[in-house]
Amino acid sequence: MTTRSPLQRVQDLVRAEWRHLTTFSPSTRRWQMPFAAALASGLPLMVGAWFGHLEYGLISSIGGLAFLHLPNTPMSHRMVWLMACAFGLAASYALGLMTHFLPLARVGVLALIAMLVTMVCRFYRVGPPGSLFFVMAAAIGAYTPGTIEQIPLRVGLLTMGALLASLIAFCYSLYILRLQAPEPVAPPQPPSFDFVVFDAVMIGAFVGLSLAIAQALQLDRPYWVPVSCLAVIQGVSLRAVWNRQIQRVLGTAAGMLLAWGLLGLPLDPWRIALLVILLAFVIETLVVRHYGLAVIFITPLTILLAEAATLGHAPLAELIQSRFIDTLLGCVVGLVGGICLHSARFRAVAGGALRRLMPRRPPA
User: Fold this and answer.
1) Is 6 domain-assigned?
2) Among 118, 61, 58, 57, which Cα is nearest to 88's?
3) Do residues 142 and 221 lie in contact, with contact meaning Cβ atoms separated by under 8 Å?
4) Would you report the helix, strand and coil content of the chain in percent, each value rounded to 5?
5) Is residue 19 one of the residues assigned to a domain?
6) Considering its fold, how many domains does the chain have in total?
């Protein structure tokens, strides 16, 4: 039996990591789905551009992300499911807006939202993107300046975007269900304490921790740190967490260059709307095949959705640098959280402590 040298072991490790980074997953997703998703995010911006209020369209476009939760089930189930997700998105955004006026409560409220939404998603076995957009809506709301009187208007705008996404989803479903049969509704699985409760509590805790660190470092735009943390920590295995972390950091770095080029163009509201539609279409085409490539286009899209109304108010280099630092910090915290979640020793210690805090059922 030959002993491999340290150099050979390093080479094997590099090859294995390269293989994971360059592997494309097969997909049966039809082009109509990315197109409909792009319309759900872009049409609110066109409406906003038409009326001269791009900032209203940007809020509604966040509600359009509800379309991405559309399952491949029969019409009756998918529409009820989508409306429930639309309500959850609006509720998360409303809570985020309220915490803007309670800075000391932001970390706790965002951690609670991440925990509860993750718990619900795991109880009902919600697939990707899971709880990501609910937390993103809450985080953006928590750092959106405004007055208390503007909260109903903004929640209404997001709800209108979610309703438009539901209408697009209905028309899309009428068409796509003629081309392919729906998947049967999966029977509910008995929930387990570890999968539903423990994982959700730990994910919420690390999301809150990431925001607390971002605030302690006085980052300009800390809302993207918990979103990046959640995107990484949601991996089903430690390998998946590691892959997500590497792909997100590398994809964001490449996406910064793309964002630099796109945001340097002369962008008016109509061009921003068309650019969002194009980016959303590319992302939904790629994300099921290669997450890292999709992140390259996710980076400029998220910058547009969060910052389009204030583009030009701050140097572009500062904005892009801030986004990369936020992403890197969130990925590091998410990786640490993923290591803890997939550690048998950590689960035994923390899970036992959490079980003792849970109320006990009375004897039958």
Assistant:
1) no
2) 118
3) no
4) 75, 0, 25
5) no
6) 1
Rounded CA gap, 281 and 302, in Å? 14
Q: 245 and 19 in contact (C-beta within 8 Å)?
A: no
Helices (H) and strands (E) in the chain — how many of each? 14, 0
Query: Does residue 9 form part of some domain?
Result: no
- The DSSP line for 142-183 is HT----GGGHHHHHHHHHHHHHHHHHHHHHHHHHHHHHSPPP
Q: Which residue's entry shows tokens 């438009």?
A: 164
Average pLDDT, the chain: 83
Mention every residue, 6+ apart, whose C-beta is less than 8 A from residue 124: 188
| Alpha helices (H) in 67-150, listed in sequence order | 75-99, 106-123, 132-142
Question: Which residue has tokens 């080479």?
Answer: 11
Q: Domain range spanning residue 330? A: 30-357
For residues 325 and 322, what is the distance between their CA atoms, to the nearest angstrom?
5
Spatial CA neighbour of 352 closest among 238, 205, 207, 197: 197
70 and 82 in contact (C-beta within 8 Å)? yes
* Greater pLDDT, 56 or 188: 56
- Mean pLDDT of the 188-203 span: 82
Spatial separation of the C-alpha atoms in residues 42 and 273, rounded to whole Å: 5
d(CA 201, CA 95): 19
Query: Would the pLDDT of 246 be above 90?
Result: no
Location of structure tokens 């809506």: 137
Mean pLDDT of 320-325: 81
Q: Which residue has the higher pLDDT, 356 or 207?
A: 207
Q: Is residue 83 part of a domain?
A: yes
**Range name among 82-91, 206-215, 307-316, 325-334 with the lowest pLDDT average:** 307-316
Q: Which residues of 134-150 are buried (b: 16+ CB within 10 A; e: fewer)?
A: bbbbbbbbbbbeeeeee
